[in-house]
Amino acid sequence: MPKKRTTNRDHAKRQQRPMMEDEVVAAQLEQLVTPAVVAQEKYYRQLGMRDRILNLPLMVAAVLTLIWRDVAGVRELSRILAREGFLWCEPTQVSWAGDPSSSQQALSQRFLTFPAEIFERVFKELLPEFERKWHSRNKRPLPESIQFAQTKFERIWASDGSTLEAVFRKLDSLTEVPKNQLAGKIGVVIDLVTRLPVEIWFQEKATASDMKFESDILKIVKPQTLILLDRGFCHYQFWQQLVEGHVHLITRLNNKASFTVESAFTSSYSIRDRIVKMGTGNKKTPCITMRLVEIKVGKSWYSYLTSVLDQLILPPYVVADLYGRRWRITDARPSGSPTRKAHQAEEAFNTVKRLLGLSYLWTGSLNGIKLQLWGTWLFYAVLVDLGDAGGSMRFLFLLTAFL
Fold first, then answer.
1. Contacts of 385 (CB under 8 A, 6+ apart)
2. By C-alpha distance, which of 313, 290, 301, 390 is closest to 338?
3. What does the DSSP 8-state code read for residue 381?
4. CA pair distance 76, 105, nearest whole angstrom
């Protein structure tokens, strides 16, 4: 019997059925994004970009429309632009080398050359505005574990890394790219309270370890922050640098990690809470004192490490619940149970990669990947902002529409 061919559903042919333009989302995008786009026009001209038909405002609108209306490709996008327009752009006919029938080629070439760094600048300029708006309105209810942690820490952040999917070799310039070569890796820090990104980094090397983002995290993290780390950040020197900067962490215990028990707070049938010493004492793995919280659910034990050594600051079940909520930013249901595996809780990446289509890369060109990356995270932040402003039910409805 011939072996069944496996397929990557993220690389399946997209349906040519773009979503209708939601007036509320369109108005929100225009109100938020337009001032940030205008602020980048000077930098746009400094890069030597001309004010042609496919100018800065139109290209920003085009990228956001590709994402939020789930447009299958540039051909369909050029048709929408010519017939109905999108967002703040009126119907516009574009062409390549004066040929009115080459609108698809004109847009395709523009995506290859339009500077992705402008999208990054727009995104990062808007982040403080999103945070300001969140603090200015009535807050949605927060889980009890987060409310408790807020009384002890000024910020509660979560950090993780994720590898992008394989690039498509559709362009002539990419014919020499090895088959199934991954498109790169992103590192993200998200505020667990506001659900908004704090910072995002991109690395071209897809095989890079999460630890490559540690120096970036150290540059932005502030004292009195509690940061929840994936197990990929299992680096004792990094942990020590965080603690020395008055930053605390919660992570999962690596299966191969060794430790020595210093003392025990609790040791019962369902919970063990102990102070442990880890590391060999050399420069790479310095000795570090941590608190090991282990909770039994059914027949399984779930182990968490934290640099918070005082039970009164972070009780055992708060430690477990916080880590379980590490990426639960789109679902209002109670969660965070230690029965939930870590990878099942990473819903921020699930939102941008599956619901908003970042797993389906438009092109294998580096510039195109970056355009999609920053455009997707920008739209994700807009959805979070819209959900908080208009109610979580509308937010969940909008996200569900992408399925």
1. 28, 32, 130, 133, 134, 196
2. 301
3. H
4. 12
* Distance (Å, whole) CA 370 – CA 384: 21
Strand partners, 248: 226
- Given the structure tokens 């921020």, which residue do they identify? 348
Query: Residue 279, SS3?
Result: coil
Per-residue DSSP letter, 4: P
Q: Cβ contacts of residue 358 below 8 Å, gap of 6+?
A: 164, 352, 372, 373, 376
CA 383/CA 348 separation, integer angstroms: 12
- Cβ-proximal residues to 290 (8 Å cutoff; 6+ apart), any chain: 239, 259, 275, 276, 277, 278, 305, 306, 307, 309
Q: How many CA atoms lie within 13 A of 97 on its CB side?
A: 3
Six-digit token string for 197 = 């990104």
**Span 270-314, pLDDT tens digits:** 999 999 999 888 877 889 999 999 999 888 889 999 999 999 999
Contact call for residues 185 and 255 (beta carbons, < 8 A): no
Host H or E run for residue 295: strand 288-297
Buried b / exposed e over 352-376, threshold 16 CB at 10 Å, is: bbbbbbbbbbbbbbeebbbbbbbbb
Highest-pLDDT range among 4-13, 73-82, 127-136: 127-136
CA 211/CA 194 separation, integer angstroms: 25
Q: What is the DSSP string of 171-210?
A: SGGGTTSPTT-B--EEEEEEETTT--EEEEEEES-TT--G
| pLDDT above 50: residue 11 | no
What CA–CA distance (Å, rounded) separates 234 from 301? Answer: 20
**Tokens standing for 293?**
């919280």
Sign of CA dihedral 119, 120, 121, 123: positive
> What is the rounded average pLDDT of the residues 243-260?
91
Ranges of beta strands (E only) in 270-360 are 271-278, 288-297, 300-306
- The label of the residue with tokens 């699930």 reads 350
Indicate the SS3 state at residue 264. Answer: strand
Residue ranges of domains in the chain: 16-118+363-400, 144-351
User: What burial class does residue 333 get, using C-beta atoms within 10 Å of its C-beta: 0-12 exposed, 13-18 middle, 19+ buried?
Assistant: exposed
Residue for token pair 């007036």: 23
Q: How far apart are CA 214 and CA 378, in angstroms?
A: 23
